[in-house]
Specification:
The chain has about 90 residues and is an alpha+beta fold. Helices cover about 25% and strands about 40% of the residues. The chain has three helices and five strands. The chain has a five-stranded antiparallel beta sheet with strand order 3-1-2-5-4. β4 and β5 form a beta hairpin. It is globular and about 35 Å long. The relative contact order is 0.29. The mean pLDDT is about 85.
Length: about 90
């Protein structure tokens, strides 16, 4: 059942800068294909200097999400319409 707690999840990788983003797009109204188009559009608008390689993870159900994350969502995520971006980085080997 599709509900407001489900999102398509992607990893958007930028190896040159050793940056990876976790990107979410709501399920309601978006297929896997239209969700990737939507996240690519939002990334190109809000992070125009980079081209990310987006990989699909699957549908994530946030029904049981920790309340702390809900309270801190504006601090943790960059929100753009139906797309939410969680910024991360990773270490060199």
């Amino acid at each position: 059942m599709v509900n407001k707690y489900q999102c398509h999840a992607f990893l958007a990788d930028l190896p040159a800068k050793r940056e990876i983003l976790t990107v979410f797009c709501k399920v309601d109204g978006y297929t896997k294909e239209t969700a990737i188009e939507k996240i690519q559009k939002e990334l190109s608008v809000h992070k125009p200097d980079n081209t990310y390689d987006a990989k699909y993870i699957g549908v994530v159900d946030f029904h049981d999400i920790d309340k702390d994350l809900i309270e801190r969502q504006n601090e943790i995520f960059d929100k753009h319409d139906s797309v939410w971006i969680l910024n991360c980085s990773y270490k060199k080997d």
